[in-house]
Amino acid sequence: MEPEHTRTHPRHAVPETCDSREDRSLATESTFVAGWRRTAAERGDAVAVQTPDESVTYRQALMVVEERALVLGAAVRDRSRPIAVDVESDVESVLSILAVLCSGHPVIVLDPFLPDARRDHILGVSGAYRLTADDLDTPVPDGVEIAEPGPDDPAVLIFTSGSTGAPKGVVHGQRAWVNQAADGRAFMGLGPGDRAATLLPLSFGAGFDCLVMTMLNGSRLLLWDVRRRGTDGLRDWLATERATTAHCTPSLLRSWLSPETSAVGSLRLLSTCGESVYRGDVERVRAGLMPDGVFCSWSGSSEAGNLAFNPFPAERELPAGVIPVGTPASDKHVRIVGDDGADVPAGEAGEVIIESAHLALRYHDAPDLTDARFTDLGAGRKRYRTGDLGRFDQLGQLHLLGRGDDAIKIRGYLVEPVEVESAIRALPWTADAVVTADRGQGRLTAYIAVNPGTWSPAPVEIRRELAKMLSPWMIPRDIVVIAELPRTERGKVDRAALPAAPGRTIEPMRGLTEANLEILWLEVLALDAVGRTEDFLALGGDSLAAATLLARVRERWFVDIPTAEFAEEPTIAGLGRLLDEANRERARTDAAGTVVELRGGEGRPMFIAAGAGAPAVSLLPLVRELGGDFPVYGLQAHGLERRGRADRTIRAAARRAIRDIRRIAPDGPYRLAGYSYGGFVMLEAAARLVDGGARCDAVILLDALFEPELLDRICGGRHPELSGAGDRVALPDRTGVTADTSERPNEDPAPADRLAALRSRVLMRTLVATAGLVTLPTATQWTVFWDLGRQLIRRHRPAIYRGPVVLVRAASSPANVAAWSRLVTGGTTVVPVAGDHHSMLRTPLVAETAAAIDAVVTPGGPARERNR
What we know:
Blueprint: H1 20-28, H2 32-43, E1 47-50, E2 55-57, H3 58-75, E3 83-86, H4 91-102, E4 107-110, H5 116-126, E5 129-130, H6 133-137, E6 154-159, E7 169-173, H7 174-188, E8 195-198, H8 205-216, E9 220-223, H9 226-229, H10 234-240, E10 245-248, H11 250-256, E11 269-272, H12 279-289, E12 294-301, E13 305-312, E14 327-328, E15 333-337, E16 350-356, E17 362-363, H13 367-373, E18 374-378, E19 381-392, E20 398-403, E21 408-410, E22 413-415, H14 417-425, E23 430-438, E24 443-450, H15 459-467, E25 478-482, H16 511-525, H17 543-557, H18 563-568, H19 572-589, E26 595-599, E27 606-609, H20 620-623, E28 632-635, H21 650-664, E29 670-675, H22 677-691, E30 696-702, H23 708-715, E31 730-732, E32 738-740, H24 751-769, H25 778-795, E33 805-810, H26 817-823, E34 828-833, H27 846-857
Helix pairs in contact: 2-3, 3-4, 7-8, 16-17, 16-19, 21-22, 24-25
Keywords: Phosphopantetheine, Phosphoprotein
GO molecular function: phosphopantetheine binding
Domain Carrier: 508-583
């Protein structure tokens, strides 16, 4: 019993024109020549071949072919010598091909579009006799007899496209073409009543197949030379000639069909072959040309002939992405095997193996290559190792996944380029696409031809869209947008002619500023790796992506980098220098180094202290949302931007804040606010101002969060208002990553990790101890001051403020009202706002935070519930 995935499965929509009597007749023929002569005799005056310019009947064709066969038999006595025919899509070429086959010689079809070097290579390695017009004009010699070819005599010598190396000659026997014709009957329903429009050049393997399937099934072969005539008028020609079937490549189909293409009522079946076909292709066929017919995906190879068919009647649901190649062809026993040569279960990928009595006989003059690919199984059967990857699904449908040597491992995952191609083709911009794999560098490159009539996307836009459908490791590192894909004379993608992907050097970052910029670049460009000297534009960034990047820089570092300056050196290294220089310049313009005017206006000013490790300008998003007409000043830590020793206690920071405040506003009443760490500084400053006789009419704490040690000191141990039932608080750091100070389970890191962690702690302690005395890169400086701020909160011994405060609390933060009630005697009003510790000061949630402040400092603001 055969494995489940190799059994015969139900075929879809075999047309009613199939005639079982004629099927049996065809099956009794053992050679193409015998099948052709029988069919031609039976069909007589029926048209055999028709082009827009001429036609010939079966009877006429048979007479001409027999005469020419005798001429060729006399001209070339060596029956093993191939005869090459220059082939166009015309009647004369069909007759010449048939004549060579009936002469007993193997035929080679030469494409007129072949480069001279390629044609010379084929003629040289094959030793073929090239048919000329003079040969055809030679009178039929007397007394010449031609021996009838046998089933395993060579009939056709096909040269591969060379897309995976040098072109190879593949020798097929006579019986193989009888089997091909039987497939046309069984899977496409080809019969005497059909008019089969072949839009493939006859020099293509699939074009030759169409000739064979049509001639041996008694159909009318309609030939339209797409390469010379183009596609203008093609639809009307199909309708005029009442074509019942049409056969082409997916790329031709895409270039030809449009939403405006009207239906051809006579067309019952359209097939494509030669490359992957996608759901969108079939949908376009159904939407216009053939709403009620059968779409058939048809696949094969030079060595195997037909491999599989997958008919889709109008009512059959289409799968997403690539259309499976479907049910194996007649007498093609297909196996999927693993590395050990054993069959794998359905759903699992492996190499595609074909066993049949109707495979190629051998490679021409290449015994070693033949032995490597073909194995004789006895009884006329062979096994062929395709080198392709594939799988059977649970319904027994065969899926091809590309060449085995195309598969690539990225981050430990095996990626098939064809799956990535499928996702790219689903994008609205894509007209054509191919994905290549560089196994040495572990990367994918996507070449995408875009529709010139629609928006042409930047690579960064394509990556963002792919990220919605693919895992990160499947997104191509390099994306090249081009007008059209180069193709060989046989219509396949000419990979050798694809433009080279931009070379990349992944140079590591230097310092924390560049390391932080790297994170932004990877997010904005949707990449998984970037070097410090790589050009932003070369990586696929456009003007919109650049604006997004600089906006993110402004949001994080509160520095405006002009796009013109960024464009001069659009690299991480260059942007890092601009960023550090902008911060140094800002520090030079602030004489005190701790106060920045954030907004002008009339009336009493408001003073807001920034959080730990953050400059005063980090408060700009909040200040811009405030109502009223009064100046606002931002306070920041001493030494953060100008060289100077940092304050070592919150009390010292508060004394400095009071000096700065009184320098600007000698007399109160004062309006004070502080964010996070800055809230503790301003509350301490308010307590000292009030104790000194001044008045504060507004003290606002913006999500000031207790460190556990300070909370324990105030409340006498763990307190139920902490985050959870007695758990210690999880405080978010300045980058938005939670710094969990709860006790962690014991871990046993590797010795190297323990040593690295120890070095990191020692380095940070040293930097914190000397904070402000040494000028550090921006990101490093802010991290050091953030760590220092947390230490100061842990060690803080706060004074009691004899007045009311308003606590504007992020929804996700603990209120700790009981703790504040021990520090504030005038009562604490808690105003919850949307967001977390960071987002409450960022667009768009900062507007609600600003409204809460306005309600306090603007007379008549909305009342809030006060918590005593």
